[in-house]
Every structure is written in C-alpha cells, then in structure tokens.
Amino acid sequence: MGLDVEAQARYGYLASRIRHHLQPPASIIELGAAPGDQIAQLADLGYAASAVDIGVASDGWSSGSEGRMLELLTAHGVTYHEWDLEKVPYPLPEAAYDGVLFTEVFEHLRDYPVTSLHEVVRILRPGGYLFFSTPNAASLVNRLRVLRGGSTYTPMADWVGGVIHARHAREYLFAEIDDIMRSAGLTVLERESRHFHVADDIRWRSHAKSVLDRIARRWPTLGPQILIVARKT
Fold first, then answer.
1. Which among 6, 64, 112, 133 could disulfide-bond with 196, CB atoms 3.0 to 4.6 Å apart, if both were Cys?
2. Domain enclosing residue 19, as ranges
3. What does each C-alpha distance from 146 to 137, 143, 183 come to in angstroms?
C-alpha cells in the first residue's frame, strides 16, 4: 500500500510553499514525520533535513511494512529523533532550524497543544518559517454532516480499538489557529485551504471534489484544510 492521492497532493503543495520561502540547503525539521515520505522528498531537494516522530505505529500510514520509515529516512540522509511531541522541551537546540514542518499533527495533541508551538518558536532561527496544516473543523463538508445528523469526530472504531495518538483530540477553526499562532509569537503570512483529493474514477465525484476545491480556494474557512505559513516574529 503506497501513499494515498491526498497525501501526495498535500506534500506537493507544501513543498511549493517551502521552496517559495526557503532555498536549499536551508535546515528543515518535520515534527510528527510518519510515514517519512514528506521530509525524505525535501532531503532529495537539497534541504538539510531532520525528523521527529513518536516511533509508535509509524509505518502504519503507508506501506505498513515494519521499519519502513527508519529505512526511508536513513536512505535519504534525514537525521531522526524519536520523541513524544507532548513532552517538552524537545531534545532539539534553540534557534537551530530555518523551517519547521508541522502537518496533520496538531489535531492529535492533547496536553495543551499550543505548548508545541512555543517549542516551534524556540527551535526556529529568528525569521524562520513554520509550514503548518490541520483539518478545518468548520469545513463545508463537516457542516453538511452535522445538518444530516452525522458526526465530525474520529470514527468510533478508532476510539474503541485504534492507537490513541492516531485519534483526533480536537479540530480547529481558522480564527482559533490565528489566535494560537499569535499567542505563540508567530506571524501568519499565508492562510489558505485546498481540497487535495480531487482525482476520482467516478466522474460526478471528481466534479464534486473539484467544486469543493474551488470553494476552498475562494472561501478558505469552508475548505477542508487549514494551511498556514507563519514566521517567527
């Protein structure tokens, strides 16, 4: 099993934002790096790449083969740190990185998640960049689910038998993320949304996804993703 289409599209988008703001060999660290493909691709582009991950079920996000992530990081020259992002301080030096990549992780943190952004600011060099993504709690699709009597929470099967850190503890609004970034000492430079998984073998579904993507680009607060580029103040 390889990476899903949505992950590949999101990686491509974030890589374009990183290349826009930082040029190789800038130093970039990914927090919550499983399955490792995103930071490995950046290492291939010439960035000095590092990764942090909790090291539990890290290979379940892609091929599922045991040891895949560590083998991938080693093969691409990525420096790896095994650490729980809810424990601070991180075993990383101050002002050591030009960029921090923090994608689809914030919603999984439980112990006062803004603490992780204080750590982001600590390890960033002055003027360094944060590249951030998390689901939008108030997306158009979520609003429609609620109107139909559905739930926007992690599926019940994951709560009953899934890995704890893989569940979403909380999803956020654009305005909440703006406030959290500001409180941590980060200035938001870009705030966008996309619907990444547009391709579909069934024509009407592909058309519907394309419409959702156009809506997300025009009205980000209705899109499924919160995409942020912020800078250390």
1. 6
2. 5-232
3. 11, 5, 30
